[in-house]
Structure formats: C-alpha cells, structure tokens
Write a structure and sequence with these properties.
By secondary structure, the protein is mostly helical. It contains 15 helices and six strands. It has a single domain, classed as ABC transporter involved in vitamin B12 uptake, BtuC (Orthogonal Bundle), CATH 1.10.3470. Helices cover 67% and strands 3% of the residues.
Length: 392
C-alpha cells in the first residue's frame, strides 16, 4: 500500500453530527493544515528533542577524550555495536510485536559475507574484493536473509515465532561450523580488520568509536522517524489488532515482512561493525549464547523506546568486563541471569521503566509539596485579612 493511502487512512475524520436532533452540525472553521508526509514526521521528531538529548549527545561526543582507550574501545565501541544489533530486535518486538531470536544470525550472515568476500587471514578462501563493495553486499545479504526469515515466521505468533527463529539460527550455526569450503568450519576467519580510509585506521579506539557512534545515531533517529511515519503507525496497529487492520485494508503479513527487512538492515550494519570490532568471526559468534545475549540486552534497557537497547548494552558490557573482579569468569552467565530475572520480575519495561517510576514519584511529591505550600499560604492570608469581631 502506498504512502498516499496510509496518509488518507490516518488523516480520515468522520463528519460531525448532532445525534440528538439527527441533523449535521455546522462545519468547523478551516484551520491551517499540518504538513503531511516525511517532513511532518521529521518535524514531529524534532519537537521531542529536549535539553536532555543535547546533553547526552554532547556526552557521547566528548567521551573518548576523557577516558582511557580501554573504555573507549572495549566499553563504548562494543556497547554501541551491540546496542545497534539489539535495536533491530527492539523495533521488531516493541513496535511490531514479533520476538525474533535470529537477529544475531542476520548480523552473523553480514559478518561472514565481509570475511568471505573481503580480506582476512585465510586468503585461500577470502576473495579480497574492494571493501566498499563488500560492505554493500554484506548489508544487502543480511537484509535479504532477514526478509526470508520474516517471510517464514510472520504467519505464526508467540512461542512458535520464537521457535522458528531459534531453529533458523541454530541451522546457520551448524552450517558455519561444519562447512569448511565456504565458512572455514569451527576456525572461522581471523584478521578481518576494517580498511584504512583517508589515512585513518578505523581499528583504532577513537576512530572506531566514532564510526560506531555515527551508525548508532543513524539507526536511532531512523527508528524514531519510522515509528511516526505512516508505515510505523500501521505496523503498531497490526501489532495491537491485526484483524481490524486487515479489515481496514492493510496487509498484516506485508507489514510484518517489511518490518523484518528494516530490522535486518539495522542488524546487518551492526554485524559489519561487530566483525571489524572483534577482528574475526567464528561459529561461536552466532551461537545460542549470543542470540540470547542480544535478547537480554534489549530487555535490560527496555523495548518501548529506541534508546533502551543502548542502555542495556552499556549495562551488559560493564558486567561482562568487571563482573570477573567479583566473581569467576565462568559465573558471568549467572550474574547476567540474576540481573535479567530482577529486571523481568520488578520492571517489565527494563531500566527505562524504573526511570519512569522514579520520575513519576518525584513529580507527584513535588506537586503535593507545591499544593501544600499554596494551601498554607492561602490560609495565612485569609487569617491575616479577617476582621476582628466587635464587642456587643
């Protein structure tokens, strides 16, 4: 369905009627129409940008210059890449109602395409094509794979969707592990590094951080724009009531498959960045543990806002790097599991849910304090202005 049909359906207003008398009321006065189309969605998105967004943007831009290289690359760069992949899951689950465990598989497919078609430490398999062509083909390949996964799984719901995407992910894992002619078996590909462009080594801490930050911001604002666009509004309608949207003329299957394609595009970009960050890709990079880890990252931050996966990625990476100081490395999954369990039990909306509760509680307390202060002032003024009673 074209964008024109979307706008017509979203902007339709029934004529006003006076049901008590059975006659139509007077037509409302003409008002200045709001701009429609992509420009309206962009303007609406810009209206939601406040002081906190400017502060966060300034903080992430200055971050590499005030912390050591370890925090820039291992914490900042990794969190941005994982957050970008988890953003694709947040878009699917939060706005499309489809929980997929194959987003890490899509990212792994894009990463393997980079290693196979580009340059790696296994020249007998890698083809050594130009990096720009390899990146384009990797993103296209991951997006096509995600579209195919969506085409298979959108006709199911709930646990069946989860099982289908998990089965596809496990199938790709065993294919990569057992195939040596193309995927080099369990060894995978080593020394898959980003190219040197404009005399900049993008594997260095600061350049890679800004590269990951750029694509993370692109993914974030793209999702923010898309959820307010006609396609995003229709997708959320399909999530809430697919039968009603179908009766209105929308195709739930087409919207869901398109959502998988969009999520695959985001995950593919994250997969390219992830293979450059690690400098390698193996079947372990697309195994069950990492499929679950992406789900944990998305749930930790919260699936109701595009910033949630990045918050969850920061928490996950911090626990991954510093939990071994308090507990053995083998017990890391136990720590992550406990944190995940606490979040699910006490805050279904993730860390953003706790933040909203704290903000609402603070607002209520301030409102109550302001109301009490005004009441006391009113009573004091009333008493001071009251006339004393005269004697009889």
């Amino acid at each position: 369905m074209s964008a024109a049909h979307w706008r017509k359906a979203m902007n339709f207003t029934a004529p006003s009627r006076n049901w008590s008398g059975g006659r139509a009321t007077a037509a409302p006065r003409p008002t200045t129409a709001a701009p429609a189309g992509p420009s309206a969605s962009v303007l609406q998105a810009w209206r939601h940008i406040g002081l906190r967004h400017v502060f966060v943007l300034a903080a992430v831009l200055v971050y590499p210059w005030v912390v050591p290289s370890f925090f820039t690359y291992q914490i900042g760069g990794q969190a941005l890449v994982l957050g970008l992949i988890a953003l694709s899951l947040t878009f699917l689950a939060g706005y499309g109602g489809m929980l997929s465990l194959a987003q890490m598989t899509v990212a792994g497919i894009a990463g393997y395409i980079v290693a196979i078609l580009g340059v790696s430490g296994t020249p007998e398999i890698s083809l050594g094509w130009p990096w720009w062509l390899v990146v384009v083909l990797a993103v296209m390949g991951g997006t096509l794979a995600a579209t195919f996964i969506g085409w298979l799984s959108v006709r199911t719901e709930g646990i069946y969707t989860i099982m289908i995407t998990l089965a596809i992910g496990m199938a790709f894992f065993y294919l990569a592990q057992q195939n040596y002619a193309i995927f080099n078996g369990f060894q995978g590909f080593q020394k898959v590094v980003p190219p040197v462009v404009l005399d900049v080594d993008w594997r260095s801490a600061v350049p890679f951080y800004y590269l990951a930050l750029f694509w993370s911001l692109v993914g974030y604002f793209f999702v923010k724009y898309l959820i307010r666009a006609p396609f995003g509004v229709a997708l959320q309608g399909v999530r809430d009531n697919a039968r009603r949207m179908s009766a209105l003329g929308y195709s739930p299957v087409a919207h869901r498959v398109a959502a998988y394609a969009v999520a695959g595009l985001i995950a593919s970009i994250g997969g390219v960045l992830l293979v450059w960050y690690n400098g390698l890709i193996t079947p372990g990079s697309v195994g069950t543990s990492w499929m679950i880890n992406i789900l944990i990252v998305a749930v930790l931050g919260g699936m109701r806002h595009p910033i949630g996966p990045f918050i969850g990625a920061v928490v996950f990476v911090l626990l991954q790097n510093f939990a071994i100081d308090l507990i053995d490395r083998e017990r890391f999954n136990l720590v992550i599991g406990l944190v995940f369990l606490v979040i699910v039990l006490f805050s279904p909306d993730g860390l953003l849910g706790w933040w909203d509760r704290l903000r609402d509680w603070t607002t209520r307390r301030l409102t109550q304090a302001r109301t009490t202060t005004r009441g006391n002032e009113w009573r004091s003024v009333s008493v001071s202005q009251a006339r004393p009673l005269g004697r009889p």
